[in-house]
Amino acid sequence: MENIKNILFGKHVRIIGFTITALVIMFVIAKVTFINKLELNKAIKDIVPNLEVRSQLIANGVTLQSTIFADAEYNLLAKDWIEANAQPKFVVFLDELGFTQWEKNNSDCDDFAKAFTVFLKSYLKKLYPDVASPAVGEIYYTQKTGGDHAINIIVLRGPKGSTTIGFFEPQIQRFVTLTKKEIESIFFISI
Question: What is the mean pLDDT of residues 159-186?
Fold first, then answer.
């Protein structure tokens, strides 16, 4: 009986079990990393001139009266790639900066928006040093509830090659929807 117990639950079986578990974990990590890398490889080849970014903003009702385009061309990233890859890492980035909550004049809406812009641009640059910057920046607009607010705007590559605009609220780390009136109230953009 002791020999059977040793064969079924002995030291070698435990080592094999641990080894198989470790191999499965490494395989899953490698596969997820490979899939994310494939998605990013596809995204970084989607370079457009800033004129296309301008056209997309105008087509979505954004006025360009006070708009700064810092680069000649931009990468259009997919919203789902940002949500699955960059967004979780942005939370860690905010924590490292000490931006855990809103504070008047120190870590308020414009500081969070600037932080996300810097984060997304540097995150992509770290992965691919020679690619164009993503089309992300800060906007300032009047909220439907009143009061001015700063969030991020991202020109995205949508399904089937379409171009869309996304609004990202960096204080809650997720995409949000602005009303038509809020979009029309945008009074400053820096991309």
Answer: 90
Match 């800060």 to its residue by tokens: 138
Interhelix angle 109-127/11-44, rounded to 10 degrees, is 100
Please give the Cα distance from 78 to 155 (Å, whole number).
9
pLDDT in tens, 91-107: 898 888 887 776 676 66
d(CA 123, CA 60): 27
Contact 153, 140 (CB under 8 A): no
Element holding 35 (H helix, E strand): helix 11-44
Instruction: Give the rounded distance of the alpha carbon of 81 from its chain centre.
Output: 7
Report the C-alpha dihedral over residues 144, 118, 63, 48, rounded to 10 degrees: -140
Percent of the chain with pLDDT over 70: 74
Structure tokens that stand for 5 in this block: 């117990």
- Element spanning 6, H or E: helix 2-9
First CA to last CA across the chain, in angstroms?
A: 73
Question: Which tokens in the block code for residue 38?
Answer: 């494939």
Give the phi and the psi of residue 2 in degrees, each rounded to 5: -60, -40
Distance CA 117, CA 191 (A): 9
Please check whether residue 168 is in contact with residue 70, taking contact to mean a CB–CB distance below 8 angstroms.
Answer: no
Pairing state of beta strands 174-176 and 163-169? antiparallel
